[in-house]
Every structure is written in C-alpha cells, then in structure tokens.
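agent: user wants the full assembly modeled, not chains individually. Plan: 1) parse entity lines 2) check alphabet per entity 3) run joint structure prediction 4) return tokens. Steps 1-2 passed, two entities, 231 residues total. Proceeding.
--- entities ---
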Amino acid sequence: QQQVKQSPQSLIVQKGGISIINCAYENTAFDYFPWYQQFPGKGPALLIAIRPDVSEKKEGRFTISFNKSAKQFSLHIMDSQPGDSATYFCAAASGRYSGGGADGLTFGKGTHLIIQP
Amino acid sequence: KAGVTQTPRYLIKTRGQQVTLSCSPISGHRSVSWYQQTPGQGLQFLFEYFSETQRNKGNFPGRFSGRQFSNSRSEMNVSTLELGDSALYLCASSLGGQDNQPQHFGDGTRLSIL
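--- prediction returned ---
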C-alpha cells in the first residue's frame, strides 16, 4: 500500500519559473511532512518541513502548502534555477515516539526536476 | 559540525555472504534510522535506534538487523545476501526524544550483490 503518492514523476521547468510538486497521503495519523532534495551520488537533504497546524510555510524560494481536509501537500519552488535540478521527495511520519513508536518516514516515489536555462 | 558519515561508500558482495555497514551520526544526535533506496521501491524504512535500543522497525525480513553503540554510532547487518538486496543504504540521524525531529541523511553505502 503506497501511503504517500507523489506527482509528477518528472518535471521540466524554464529558469525563473515556478516548480510545483504534489503529494497526497492516506494515513490520517501522519502529522509531520518534510521535503527532501537529492542530487546524484548524495543522500537526501532536508529542505523544509511542515506540521498540520499551519497551512503554509515558506523558507526562501521554497514554500510548502498543506491542505489537511484533502490530505494533500505540495512544494513550490519560486524563481527556479538550474542548480535546483535534482530529485525531490515528499515524506510523512506520525509523530509520537512515546511507547507506540513511529514507522519512520514514509516517502513518495520522487520527482525528477529539470530546470532548463 | 560534521554531517552523518557512512562507511564504506561502495561494497560488492556475492549471494549468501553477509555484510556490515557503519553509520556515525551528527554529534549530539541520539537517534539513528536506516533506509533502503532502490529504483523500484524507492526509499523504505528499515529500523530506528535510540539509546542503544531498537525503537521502530519497518517491514523487512529478519536477515536485516542493526545495533547502536553507547556513542550513538550504528551498524546495520544483512545476512545471507540476495540479489534483491542490491541498493543504496542510507542512514539518518536526529536528536531523538519525543515528537518527530528533522532527520539528516548521510550519502549512503552502495551495495551491489553479484
């Protein structure tokens, strides 16, 4: 069962444009939603994360939008640059480690983003 | 501050062998998680250790095991290797404790099974 569905699989955006990647989840226990960026030969790097008590979080050119009722969240990259070309992963986790434990991060399948100069 | 360090970076083994991978977390981080990354299945959670105890476990067979030492360094072991175990194995560390904390990944160990 794929608990986090990510789309699109690949995306080509012109330099200066807005890149938008979407994710949908099924498990209503999820309460932590990070986005990771991965370059070839490197591990995923944490970009930005959101919790469901806010609908939007912005850090620099990166913005997460969160819709709790629709169980969807998205990453917007403003003024996309060639250096943003990478694979992006959304993820989700249920928080509380107190006894019940969490299942680690559940990742989407990834979006291969190419920014054309 | 140094990041998460994984050794070795590359490893080639044959079917039936066993392998041990090592992870040194960011200084001060007490939680270490392991993930398997493959083109087909993507990133999948293996297990998490906190204060030398396995706290969470993903849906992998018992051939996959791990441990954590008192200095928070962790090792992952895979026994009786199968061709399907070929993957990038990633380690992530976080502060641990209550509630989700940001997880920071190393660059992984690329394991190839011949």
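agent: reporting back. Residues 97-101 of chain A have pLDDT under 50 and may be disordered. Residues 3 and 26 of chain A are 6 Å apart (CA to CA).
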